Amino acid sequence: MSEMNTPNPALAxxxxxxxxxxxxxxxxxxxxxxxxxxxxxxxxxNVIWEFLWDAPEQMLDxxxxxxxxxxAYYRVAVHTALMETFHIATLGTIFALVAALPxxxxxAHNLTPxxxxxxxxxxxxxxxxxxxxxxxxxxxxxxxxxxxxxxxAAIACRSVGFVGKLLGEALEEVPRGAIEALKAAGATQxxxxxxxxxxxxxxxxxxxxxxRWDINVRESSVLGLVGAGGIGMxxxxxxxxxxxxxxxxxxxxxxxxxxxxxxxxxxxxxRLL
Length: 273
Prior knowledge:
Elements: H1 2-5, H2 9-12, H3 21-44, H4 49-66, H5 72-107, H6 115-130, H7 133-144, H8 148-172, H9 176-184, H10 189-223, H11 231-240, H12 244-272
């Protein structure tokens, strides 16, 4: 009995710890690394602390200047620029679709079993995504000059990588059963795409296109800041002239457009998907 009541020394010495020593050291090193990165960033971006402390007061002053908004300015200039923004986003999305469809087929290894073509298509898609739309706009302004044409080309080039990548991944995830059945029946490559791949990727296709159009509406709103047409051009002009009541109208319009676009996209997604 005495042996049964005697506590096990190994069990008695065990202590519960939330984190092991290695985990504690790793967490400490992680937060220390973040702190060092923040300090180095603050040092290299040359923060002017006088402006930083004065920022809340300047922000309040700017907001006061925005009210009351000049609502009459909407009919004068904002509406026309807003329609131009919609045209840039819509045409850019359509052009991106035309270019992304063949690239997505070439990028999908199950549709194009050629590593060279796969690599080329994926390289083009990555190149499209790696350059920001504002940078694309600056490049096309140098080619076409300021205006909506440069903005449309910038939106299209930026969207190709997004649409092509997601659509290519959707094509690669299509179940092989239906495709093998079509092959056994002697279907051509185009018939396999039309009757095998398309029904499987159609929901993803519409979802990708609606999402990208929504993103392009927002991006085309700011392309005008660099001269690529749309509502951003009149906002840049109003800011340069310190017409803050007109800036307020433009910002309210952009906000309303984003909300309405989100509602429309959600409605069509439910109807189509």
